[in-house]
Amino acid sequence: MLDIVIRNGQVYDGTGNPWTRLDIGIRDGRIVKIGQLHDSEAVLEIEAEGLAVCPGFIDTHVHSDLLCTKPDIHKIKVLQGVTTELLGQDGISVAPVNEQTKPLWQKQLRGLNGDIGDWPWNSIDEYLQFLSRSTLAGNVAYLVPHGAVRTLVMGFEGRRATTEEMRKMRELVEEGMRQGAVGLSSGLVYPPNLFSCKEELIELCKGAAKYDGCFVVHMRNESNHILEALDEMIDVARRSSVRLHISHFKVIGRNNRGNFQQALEKWIRPVLRGSRSPLINIRTQQDQPCYMPCCHRGCTMGAQRSFSPSCKTQRFAGGLKMTSRTTMILKTG
Q1: Which of 48, 72, 175, 250 is the most exposed place for a label (fewest CB within 10 A)?
Q2: CB under 8 Å to 221, separation ≥6 — which residues?
Q3: Rg of the Cα trace of the chain?
Q4: C-alpha angle with apex 44: 39 to 50, nearest 5 degrees?
Q5: Does 154 score more than 60 pLDDT?
Q6: Residue 167's beta-bridge partner residues?
Q7: Structure confidence by residue, pLDDT tens digits, 101-119
Q8: CA distance 240 to 10
Q9: What are the residues facing 215 on neighbouring strands?
């Protein structure tokens, strides 16, 4: 006996293959059968005729760091097919903090991340424990935010960091990675991140790369100086061996439209030279809805018609392991 059977859906496996009309059998939160399951019985049967069935989508740039704990609000993401979100974006997020920096970040982030009252955490470990105890409407992973680390070491001071301050910040990044983060983020147009120099970014990225983490960054400029900004990020990746992800890959301003092709060539040139080289591994995120499917037969927590906010996560040193994914049923056309 299966727990759930999704019947007659147009199954898209996430690999780019054409859809196939198949049934999906689920037991104990995992997909255990895919095929023609005419003879299989289930506690719950979902008729998906005329609907697309696919792996859940990953939203790689969100600011749901607080409201993900409010399923009545946050379930809208699952109902759009998003089952995993990457938190801690733009170097401005909720952990790590201390009793001095916490009220500053609570005020700073209220308009962006919302307000859930007191933050019962300081470290990334404590924040992830808080998420594990919360009722989430999906899965999450977390990036060490550059700004939170910087304020722990030097407040919001608008100056370059000293060598000793860079060392302390790198130690905090490595600590965050050991506690379960999957990489480092920065937003180089937001204080205090914008006060950092390239050497600071390289040092912190070395801390993330040590644990095979990525660097997700909103560059210093996306308009008149986008080419210089992109050069800086590529150099940071090359010199730190971190995997680079550019957020909001775009060119702002009509007069700068001619720079887009050059920017694209700068991005793709290292890839053409060897995308699997340990020196540099670059990805971009277009500034439009751009979701990445989970492309394997992972787990499931049900389907859109039987939404249940019961997904959880499991942490491990150097990353956050997803223990459940949701198979979504979406209307086509």
Answers
A1: 72
A2: 189, 228, 229
A3: 21
A4: 80
A5: yes
A6: none
A7: 999 999 999 999 999 999 9
A8: 44
A9: 184, 244
Beta strands 183-187 and 214-218, pairing class: parallel
pLDDT at 271: 60
Q: How many CB atoms lie within 10 A of CB 316?
A: 9
Q: How many residues does the chain have?
A: 333
pLDDT in tens, 207-225: 999 999 999 999 999 999 9
Q: Copy the structure tokens of residue 83.
A: 């089952």
What's the pLDDT tens digit per position in 165-194? 999 999 999 999 999 999 999 999 999 999
Distance of CA 274 to the CA centre of its chain: 25
Closest by Cα among 221, 216, 179 to 201 = 216
Give percent of the chain above pLDDT 90: 69
Phi, psi torsion values for 98, nearest 5 degrees: -130, -175
Q: What is the pLDDT of residue 313?
A: 38
- Burial group, residue 248, by CB count within 10 angstroms (0-12, 13-18, 19+): middle
Beta carbons within 8 Å of 22's beta carbon, 6+ residues apart: 9, 11, 34, 35, 36
- SS (HEC) of 284-299: EEECCCCCEECCCCCE
How far apart, in whole angstroms, are the C-alpha atoms of residue 279 and residue 295? 26
